[in-house]
Amino acid sequence: MSGLNKLSAIGNIGRDPETRATTGGTELASFSLAVPNRKDDPPTWVRVTCFGKKVAVVMQYLKKGSKIYVEGPIQLREWEGNDGAKRTSLEMVANELVFLDPKLDTGHKRGEEQSRQHQAQQASADFDDDIPF
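RESULT FIELD:
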């Protein structure tokens, strides 16, 4: 049996997303996501990276405080800081993003679930037109 490496999280963006290019020239966007824990516990911080078409959407519509659902593989990255102390961070590549801010209206489909809801509404609307009364 093979393994599964996937995190699904809902949280708020900790600071405005940033873009940069890899050494190969691929553009990426990254941001920190605060995922709430129990009532009195501090949030878990996850570093999220997006590639491809998601970069433009993230940069246009997301900002500090935006609430999102994000899903993708995770990894634990370790490095040594300038002060010589070992540091770690939880990082993920976003395969799916769904904007959860009610005041955010992008005009785009945001995730498979919203696409399914739209199709169901469309099918329901088509059905209603056929009712003779």
